[in-house]
Design brief:
This protein has two domains: 5-40; 44-181, Nucleoside Triphosphate Pyrophosphohydrolase, CATH 3.90.79. It is 21% helix and 43% strand. The protein has helices spanning 84-96, 150-158, 166-181, and strands spanning 5-14, 19-26, 32-40, 44-51, 55-63, 68-72, 75-77, 98-99, 105-111, 120-131, 144-149. β9 and β10 (120-131) form a beta hairpin. Residues 40-170 form the Nudix hydrolase domain.
């Protein structure tokens, strides 16, 4: 299988949230697509955060594109100059006030949607977390912290008893696998 050849690129939109790029692409069979749109977004980090009592730390917040309130794991973009590990530690602390003395464990790195997006997400596990600080939210954030029993989250996801997103569900199952292989 061969990669497509980009014949031309122009930006349709640029913003601090991401860019929309229009490519003209030539496929290996010679066909040309004149308007292949690509969303350029920053990479993200997220983390399953567990307390010593095996509670999972979740953040509840309104998501405008989904037009509803969702329960998710802490996540965000890295700030300039941060490593992924520094970024997730900062995000968890800012959104929840929780920290851990343990080093974040990388569970995996994944493309979000390589058909139309350029960004990746790196998923971490933070163990033995505890509340140490007050939240430090941006003026556009309203986040409520919830602690749930880690084991019960799976059935809540499967039965749609909570509104969440794919990244939280995926990270939950990655964590279950990691913990079963590393008791």
């Amino acid at each position: 299988m061969k990669q497509w050849k980009t014949l031309n690129t122009e930006y349709v939109h640029k913003s601090s949230y991401g860019n929309i790029r229009k490519d003209i692409c030539e496929l290996p069979n010679g066909m040309v697509i004149n308007d292949y749109f690509v969303n350029e977004y920053s990479d993200w980090v997220n983390a399953v955060v567990l307390t010593k009592e095996n509670k999972i730390l979740l953040v509840e917040q309104y998501r405008h594109a989904g037009n509803d309130i969702y329960l998710e794991i802490p996540a965000g973009k890295r700030e300039h100059g941060e490593t992924d590990e520094e970024g997730i530690i900062r995000e968890v602390k800012e959104e929840t006030g929780y920290i851990s003395r343990q080093t974040p464990i990388l569970l995996g790195e994944f493309m979000i949607n390589p058909a139309t997006q350029t960004n990746k997400i790196r998923t971490y596990l933070l163990l033995d977390a505890y509340k140490q600080f007050d939240q430090e939210l941006d003026e556009t954030e309203e986040i409520y912290v919830q602690l749930l029993d880690f084991e019960s989250l799976g059935s809540l996801i499967k039965t749609n008893k909570i509104k969440t997103q794919l990244f939280t569900a995926h990270a939950y199952y990655l964590t279950k696998t990691f913990l079963s292989e590393n008791p």
